[in-house]
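Extended Data, panel c. Modelled sequence:
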Amino acid sequence: MKDPESIPQVGELVRVLNGRDKDQFAFIIEVLDERFVRIADGDKRKVDRAKKKNIQHIERVNIIAPEVKNSIVETGRVTNAKLRFAISTYIDDNLLKEGE
């Protein structure tokens, strides 16, 4: 059995490793099963046209955005604007500081 750390969570920021959206950041908006998730970034990948991705083709950044997670848990959906804002905030705050 897999450990709980390997299971992705709703609201988690990921980087796409393979496919057309390679090197783009997105949030997990739904966990379909142990192998597949649905991701969206609010810009190129809107919530209503989220991409089904194999978890082997994404890199987890170990950042969970509470505003995205809470919105999905409470209402069952999240807005594209909230996804765009959260991605830009977490990229600017966390990833740019590591790369400096």
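Residues 9 and 17 are 18 Å apart (CA to CA). This feature is highlighted in the accompanying rendering.
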